[in-house]
Amino acid sequence: MTGDDRWYEAAFVVGITNALNAVADGLGETLPPLDDASAGAEAAAVFGDIRTFYGLPAGAVPIPFGVVARDPAYLADVWGAVKRAFTERRLTRRHKEALAFAVSLTSRSGFGTRFHLGELRRLGTGERGVMEIVGVAQMFSSYTKIADTLQLSSDMADIAPVDSSGVPDPGAG
Amino acid sequence: MPTVRLRDASEYPEPARRLFELSRQWFDYDFKEPPAMSRVMAWDPHFGGPHGRAMKRAMAPGEFTRGEKEMVAAAVSGANACTY
Fold first, then answer.
1. A67-101: b or e for each residue (b if 16 or more CB lie within 10 Å)?
2. CB pair distance less than 8 Å for A156 and B27
């Protein structure tokens, strides 16, 4: 196992977050989310697993899952990918929610920003921690646009910043 | 090609060069020339100074580690389709 594991995990979180946001923000009103009764038994079973994972009350289904429940087999596969991506492995679940919150905020996803902010808080992140992620997303949204406007080429690709605090690495060894 | 001519560190006045030392300390790396973004920010220390301090406040260890935040910054840069 190498440090690349963490980057694969991060990339999968970012990718599947973008996929959920696209459906929620783009289709949530056009194709109203189904509930347990309208989605059928197969999809309802998946909804139950989703509620357990997110600690949601009975009947609650996050918008993107309710939308794609029109095809229960597809829903099951999408959920399988989401659950795998957000399950704690080399990166903590809270860190993954921070990544999802930051990319949702950056990509202006109303659904994703609200959903992952809620998850961050549910997993114990305080207001200071939320502001830390807001700050990182905001400042790097500035740096990136300055770099793009001036068409700067990357000149720090080989520089690994020193992390004296250490990233939690439960899979090391 | 950059839109502007990036000046060498030696072309900056002394107060602006202080930002380069802060940059070196932040990255803990001895650059031959300061990174392009550092030289851009040093063009106007009245902008680059507070911008850099805001970034450092945001990136400082708190509820999340510096390493965790560096990964968030990379994800945000990716979301902004920026390779810098």
1. bbbeebeebbebbeebeebbeebbbbebbbbbbbb
2. yes
